[in-house]
Every structure is written in structure tokens, then in C-alpha cells.
Amino acid sequence: MKIILRENIDNLGRRGDVVKVAAGYGRNFLLPKGKAYPFSEGNARKVESERHLIKIREAKEKGAAEELAARLSQISTTIVRKVGENETLYGSVTNSDVGEALAKEGFDIDRRRIQMEEPIKMVGIYTVPVKLHPEVTAEVKVWVVKE
User: Whole-prediction pTM value?
Assistant: First the structure.
């Protein structure tokens, strides 16, 4: 099934791209959620006319993301957890915990944008990437300390 994307979708494409997807994915997810148009000449012309507005919007979004990334890279946040033997945590620190800590600092970041490869299970200082825009990633310093 050929579709025209209305927004950037990770591992699929950017706004305005014509991509081929599985029929079920397009019919059951992308089209009902308004993330894509079915491919046709009329929709292709519609997307082409929107392309200029999309470029302006993306430039504004990227600028705002770069500004937020600069502010995020200046802060460090502390997360306090109970610790067992060998400085290991009871439980772990996940992207939700980092999101809550950033919210206390005044940043409203969606937990899905926090790109942790695996949960933190030891006390220490960690650098956690936060993907704010497809081209902008901020680095946040997270201190995990014992209670």
C-alpha cells in the first residue's frame, strides 16, 4: 500500500514522503490516526502545496528544540533511591523516573523522548540522551545517589 506521510514517523519516513507500507499498518493505524493520506495524484498535489508550510514549521520546531536542548544540557538532576549491597539499587531508575525528575526541574518532557538503552541499576553519574527533534538530541546529566 502506498501512502503519503503527514508527519515524521521513526523508521518509516518524514512528512511528505511517499512510502510503501503493509496494508494492515496503513489501513488500521496510519490512516485512522491521521498520520498519512492514501496515495493519489490529488493528495500528492495537496502535500506538495503543504510542503512550504511544513518547511517553515519544521524550522520553528527545530529552533525551539535546539533552545530547549541548550537549557537541558546546562542542568543536572538528582534521583535518590534505596541502595543494597555493592551500591546496587533496589529496583531501577527508568525513563519515567528521569522524566519526573526533569518535571521537578521545570521541564515537561515526554518519557518516550528519553532514550535510555536500559534502566540504571547502580549508584553513579549518568548521561541520558533526550531526543527532542529528529535532528536534535540533548544530553542530561543524572546523578543517582543513595538514600
Answer: 0.70
